[in-house]
Amino acid sequence: MAKITVAYMPYNTDVGFLRIKQQYISIDHWRIAFFIHVYASMWVLFAGFTQFSRRLQKNNPGLHRALGYVYVVDVLLVTGPAGLLMGFYANGGLFSRIAFVLLAILWIYFTAMALIKAKKKDFKAHRNYMIRSYALTLSALTLRAWKYAITNSIELPPMDVYRAVAWLGWVINLGVAEYIIFLSKRKSLFKKRSPQIM
Length: 198
What we know:
Layout: H1 2-6, H2 28-50, H3 54-59, H4 61-87, H5 93-119, H6 123-137, H7 139-151, H8 158-193
Helix pairs in contact: 2-4, 4-5, 5-6, 5-8, 6-8, 7-8
């Protein structure tokens, strides 16, 4: 992701993904949203990754909270809204646009709920919403992984690949997140039901 981001610096408009978005480059709000999304997403990936370190939570809760706020502010006020705007201009027609708009809305919602639950000291719910939120953050990676896998195993027109990865890139991530949450809840329930060993 760092390598992809560097390619756009400081303001390259004819590299990578932008080569297939030339019809939108002249639209000021789309272009601004794109560069905001590209540059700010690296902070989201890093800050979100740290939130699942139990060692950091235990030994440096202040840093955990600070990085958590970096993540939340970035998603809610910067990267999320930029991604939502970009979703309305996605390649692949209405099918892809629905996928990316829904991804952005859920990403913002799960992140907002994670913050709300943390403020209410409901840390189990906070963690579950953070798992969902970060699963969607990771769609930046899994979308590219799916694109690579499909293009190297099946012959499909480029736009068909794009339509497929628009959904595969995040729906499966969210399914894995829900499974992780389910396993955590089942483990917690099992501990409650187990007789205490004296």
